[in-house]
Structure formats: structure tokens, C-alpha cells
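Input (structure):
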């Protein structure tokens, strides 16, 4: 197997089982070297905590990029998640341009919103900048809220296939492959819709009623890791979905664990799924 190097750009939420504390172990479990560029450092994530600290690392990015380029450190994939500022998004596009090896993918999780709302601290300027990153990417992994913000199509909580197809048409208009997460046509199941080369595939699985924080990051990290390791898009989408469900199942019922999913005990099952 080739030894691949991926760069992931997202925040460090020091406590919170999301972004880099999830991406780094999961990408490593996928058997690929993982370089990190922290977008910001927060004491916790912003969902359900009050008074968190936030240090934006935008200013560090140009010098880090210049150093890596000078050292000829290039990447087989760049995967972005939660970013720290609208201005930072331009630096991230520049990194992909300068440091991705030819023909290698930019994978973007436009982590900025859920359940019909932007995360705290983000505004319409951030959404506008995120559109430039998303519509230049090879693979994008929005949830339905993010898809609606990126396309200007109204947000719906319940919908039929025609609504999802409309989102997929708009999201794939610039040629990228779309993995739309959290697509649910009935109360008992949910899944992902993958639009690639004009064709839509669904992967459905059971819905667990309790939503958990950070599952978008778990999903995107495993998808990016599996794809970089050489799995097809549909296999990567399925492996990531099965792993995310296993992590949620391992967490529900523990009322003391409210800020993320207990994904660590499930890592063995991920490694087995990647070997199949
Ligand atoms: O899981 C997405 C995420 C990542 N990073 C931070 C967040 C969130 C979602 O709320 O607040 C800091």
C-alpha cells in the first residue's frame, strides 16, 4: 500500500471530541500520515458550552505555508473542517493550490451550521467565503443546513427526494462530488446521498433518535481517510456511515457524556472495515 500524507485544517477544541481531536486519531487509524494545521484553539467547542476561549490562528497560516513549500512538503489530500475566520478561507485555498500534489483532492467539510442555524460566531461573510472554497473543491460534505446556506435554496426539515436532488444539482454544479449527510425520508432511517458524475447513490442506515455533537467531524474524517487510503467514494461513504452509527450507539445512554461521541473504543472496527 502507498504511504499517503494528508493535511487537515480545522480547530483544536481542547475538550469536546470534535475537529482535530477526532480527525487526527481517525485519519491515523486509516493508515495515512496526518499533518495538521490548526485553524483556531478553543477551550471547548461552541455547542452547548458558555464562556469558551477562542484564539484565531489566521495570522500564522501564510508563514507555515511558505515554510512547507520551501521544504517541498506536499500533500496527497487536503481536508478542511471548522475554520476560524472568513479571511482564513482565502489562505486555505492558497494552501490547496500550492501544496496539493498534482491531481490530488481537496476535500471540504463546510462545518459552519446544523439544525437550520449557523454555529455561534459565523455570519453571512463567512458563508460567502466558504462558497469559494466549496465550489472549488473535489469532494464536499455538507449537511442539509450547510447545503441550503451554500446554494440559497430554502432549508427544510422534512422533504422528499425532489428537494434533495435540487440541492445535489446546485452543489455539484461546479463539478465536485457531493456527499450530503443527514438525508432522512422517514423517522426510522437516515443516511447520505452521494452525487458523482451526475448519478445519485444513497446509503441508508437506522436513525438513532438522540443526536450527538461532533458526528459530522467523525463522518468527514473517516470519509477523507478511507478515500485517501484508496477506497471508492461509495465505499468510503458507507464505511464512514457505519462507523459513525457505531460511535453514536456507543455513546447513547451515558448522560454524563454530553459533548461528543465516545469513538475511541470503535476504532478497531474501523480498521477491520478498511481491510475488507
Ligand atoms: O463539530 C463541528 C465543530 C467544530 N469545531 C467547533 C465547533 C463545532 C460545532 O459546534 O463549535 C469549535
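Output (sequence):
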Amino acid at each position: 500500500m502507498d504511504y499517503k500524507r494528508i493535511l487537515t485544517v480545522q480547530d483544536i477544541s481542547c475538550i469536546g471530541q470534535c475537529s482535530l481531536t477526532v480527525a487526527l486519531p481517525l485519519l491515523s487509524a486509516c493508515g495515512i500520515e496526518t499533518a495538521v494545521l490548526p485553524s483556531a484553539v478553543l477551550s471547548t467547542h461552541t455547542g452547548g458550552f458558555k464562556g469558551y476561549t477562542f484564539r484565531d490562528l489566521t495570522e500564522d497560516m501564510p508563514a507555515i505555508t511558505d515554510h512547507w513549500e520551501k521544504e517541498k512538503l506536499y500533500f496527497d489530500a487536503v481536508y478542511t473542517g471548522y475554520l476560524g475566520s472568513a479571511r482564513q478561507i482565502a489562505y486555505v485555498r492558497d494552501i490547496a493550490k500550492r501544496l496539493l500534489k498534482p491531481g490530488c483532492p481537496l476535500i471540504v467539510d463546510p462545518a459552519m451550521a446544523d439544525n437550520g442555524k449557523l454555529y455561534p460566531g459565523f455570519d453571512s461573510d463567512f458563508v460567502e467565503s466558504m462558497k469559494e472554497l466549496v465550489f472549488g473543491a473535489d469532494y464536499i460534505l455538507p449537511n442539509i443546513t450547510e447545503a441550503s446556506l451554500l446554494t440559497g435554496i430554502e432549508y427544510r426539515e422534512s422533504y422528499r427526494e425532489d428537494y434533495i436532488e435540487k440541492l445535489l444539482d446546485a452543489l455539484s454544479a461546479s463539478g465536485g462530488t457531493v456527499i450530503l449527510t443527514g438525508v432522512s425520508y422517514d423517522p426510522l432511517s437516515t443516511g447520505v446521498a452521494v452525487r458523482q458524475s451526475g448519478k445519485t447513490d444513497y446509503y441508508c442506515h437506522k436513525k438513532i433518535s438522540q443526536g450527538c455533537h461532533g458526528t459530522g467531524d467523525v463522518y468527514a474524517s473517516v470519509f477523507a481517510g478511507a478515500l485517501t487510503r484508496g477506497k471508492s467514494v461509495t465505499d468510503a461513504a458507507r464505511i464512514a456511515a457505519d462507523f459513525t452509527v457505531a460511535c453514536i450507539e456507543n455513546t447513547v445512554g451515558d448522560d454524563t457524556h454530553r459533548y461528543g461521541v465516545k469513538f475511541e473504543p470503535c476504532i478497531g472496527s474501523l480498521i477491520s472495515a478498511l481491510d475488507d
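Notes: The pocket of PXL is lined by residues 11, 13, 18-19, 42, 45-47, 82, 111, 119, 214, 216-217 (CB under 6 Å). Residues 153 and 167 are 7 Å apart (CA to CA).
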